[in-house]
C-alpha cells in the first residue's frame, strides 16, 4: 500500500519576488513595495500556522541584492531592523521558532545582535520553524559548509556537507514557490531543492494571499514524487526487490 499523501507539504520555501514591480505599477517608490511585501509575509506565516505547515523558509535578501542602488539596500536593512522589533512578539505568541539563515558578517553589529536576540527568544517554540534567508546565497551556503568541514579536517561527503549546511536543522523543502513570474532559482537553496516540487506564480509577492498559497498546495498534491523510482514503485504496485548493492 502506498503511504497516504500528507494534506500539506511539511516544508514550504518561497522566493518572495515582485515587490518592486508591485510598487512601480502604482507609481510608488520600490521601498513601499518591500513594506507591502512584509505585510504579505506576516499574512503568509499566519496562513502556514493555520494549515499546519511545519517549516517555512523565505528568501528575503540575496547575496546579489547588494548590487542594487544603495538607498534600496539601506531601506531593506532598515525594514529588517524594524520587523525584528515589530514582529517578534507576535511570532512568539504564535509558537514560531525564528532562524536567520545567511552570512551575517556584512550586517551591522546592531542588526546582528537583534537577529541573535530574536532567535534566542523564540528558540523553544514548536508550532512552526520559520527560516528567513537574509544575505543568503546557495553558493555561499555550499562554500561555507565545505570550509567548515575542511577546517575541522573532516571528509567531504553528501552527508557531512548536508549536516554543515545552514538549513541542517530542517528537512529539505517539499514545495518551492517563486512569485513574480520569473522562472529561475536566483541562487536560492541550490543544495536543498534537489527534489523539491517547483511552483511558479505570476502573482507579485505583495499580492500572494491565502488563496494563492492554497492553489500552490493543491498543485503540489497532484504531483507524483518519485525520487528516482518508477510510478509503479511509488504507487506500491511493483514489489520487485531492489537488489542493487547499496
Ligand atoms: C523581491 O522583490 C524582494 C527582494 C529581492 C529584496 P524585488 O525587489 O526583486 O521585486 P521586482 O522583481 O523588482 O519586482
Ligand atoms: C531573488 O529575487 C531574491 C529574493 C527574492 C530575495 P531577485 O529579484 O533578486 O532575483 P533576480 O535578480 O530577478 O534573479
Ligand atoms: Mg525581483
Structure description:
The model has no long low-confidence stretch (mean pLDDT 95). The protein is globular. Helices cover 43% and strands 15% of the residues. It has helices spanning 19-25, 30-51, 70-93, 109-122, 138-152, 158-164, 210-222, 231-234; strands spanning 11-15, 55-62, 96-101, 128-136, 175-178, 197-200. The longest helix has 24 residues, at 70-93. A 6-stranded parallel beta sheet has the order 3-4-2-1-5-6, with helices on both faces. The protein has 246 residues and is α/β, with parallel strands linked by helices. The protein has 8 helices and 6 strands; from the N terminus they run E-H-H-E-H-E-H-E-H-H-E-E-H-H. The chain has a single domain (11-223), classed as Decaprenyl diphosphate synthase-like (Undecaprenyl pyrophosphate synthetase), CATH 3.40.1180. Bound molecules: 3-methylbut-3-enyl trihydrogen diphosphate (2 copies) and magnesium ion. One 3-methylbut-3-enyl trihydrogen diphosphate (IPE) binds next to strand 2.
